[in-house]
Design a protein that fits this description.
Blueprint lengths: L6 E9 L5 H9 L17 E7 L2 E7 L9 H15 L3 E7 L6 H14 L3 E7 L6 H14 L4 E4 L8 H11 L17 H17 L7 E10 L5 E9 L2 H8 L4 H18 L3 E9 L7 H6 L10
Parallel strand pairs: 1-3, 1-4, 4-5, 5-6, 8-9
Antiparallel strand pairs: 2-3, 7-8
């Protein structure tokens, strides 16, 4: 038996869209719990991934990217991001090494003193393989002059460089206390929502520039079958009739390939057979419907201008 006391704490990952937060979360947890694409603004809900490290439990909050909001959905996502940071025991600001102190990063830095209070904030400079060492040192200096970070880490979330050092530091920061989740649980999102996120990721990857953010996916039904498999029915909401045709593709080829890819990933995640059925529905005003926000784990009121 290990006599060391148990520890548990919340770690919020914040930063601009596409800074690598979801990639880092998935690496820390050791499984894919957050949507990862080359598209910006893909994380909508505050996804919690649970990582075990000895007697410590790190609960990672992968927040939506912080950016200048234009629509109700944007405003709700930004509010969720700052809310996730405010609730955390420790915060990690991720920036991209090659983009440096962009206007978006400067805006985040300006908000940190008021938003964070006494909460420790670490800086994680990601994608370090894209910049020479002298550039990294200059960026580290400039960032720490702009805000008093508790620690700075040079990482590559995709390749894993520097992630162990960051993880060890985070373990040291979280308070002693009982674990907040079962040892074998890796995420606190309902499986229905994780499955919907996986399908949305496949759609985002497949459709590229055509329908970046005008769709959402909801798991309408999840039926456990006697043979141990599960039947999953999902609805894909789009805003216009023309979008429905794009999602379906010629002869239904696009949705067929999306369904196959999503089904394979969901099966790998749950470890048993899955039967996935997708249906596309046109809802012109889904971006203004309270129910859609609840399904995404967002607060509809946060989208008010």
């Amino acid at each position: 038996m290990n006599d060391a006391p148990t520890k548990a704490g919340f770690v919020a990952l914040i930063g601009e869209p596409n800074a690598g937060k979801s990639t880092l979360l998935n690496r820390m947890v050791g499984a894919k719990v957050s949507i990862v694409t080359h598209k910006v603004q893909t994380t909508r809900a505050r996804i919690r991934g649970v990582a075990m490290d000895g007697q410590a439990q790190l609960i990672f909050i992968d927040t939506p990217g912080l950016f200048k909001p234009r629509r109700r959905l944007d405003r709700a996502m930004v509010a969720a991001a700052w809310g996730g940071a405010a609730d955390a025991d420790v915060v990690v600001l991720m920036i991209e090494a090659h983009r440096g102190m962009s206007e978006g990063v400067k805006a985040i830095l300006a908000n940190l003193p008021d938003r964070m209070g006494k909460t420790k904030v670490a800086l994680a400079i990601n994608k370090i393989d894209k910049v020479k060492s002298e550039g990294l040192l200059a960026l580290t200096r400039d960032m720490n002059e702009a805000f008093a970070f508790a620690e700075t880490f040079m990482i590559s979330a995709e390749r894993g460089h520097g992630c162990d050092a960051l993880r060890k530091w985070l373990v040291d920061q979280v308070p002693e206390g009982p674990w907040l989740y079962p040892e074998d649980q890796i995420a606190d999102l309902p499986m229905r929502m994780i499955a919907a996120e996986m399908t949305r990721e496949k759609l985002t990857l497949r459709l590229h520039q055509e329908l970046p953010y005008e769709l959402t996916v909801e798991t309408e039904n999840w039926e456990e079958r006697p043979d141990g498999s599960a039947r999953i029915d999902q609805l894909i909401y789009v805003a216009r009739d023309g979008h429905k045709g794009i999602v379906l593709g010629k002869g239904g080829e696009t949705i067929k390939q999306v369904s196959q890819a999503a089904r394979a990933e969901i099966m790998e995640f749950v470890g048993r057979p899955v039967h996935l059925f997708l249906q596309v529905k046109v809802r012109p005003n889904w971006l203004e419907e309270k129910e859609r926000y609840s399904e995404m784990g967002l607060d509809f009121k946060d989208g008010n201008a």
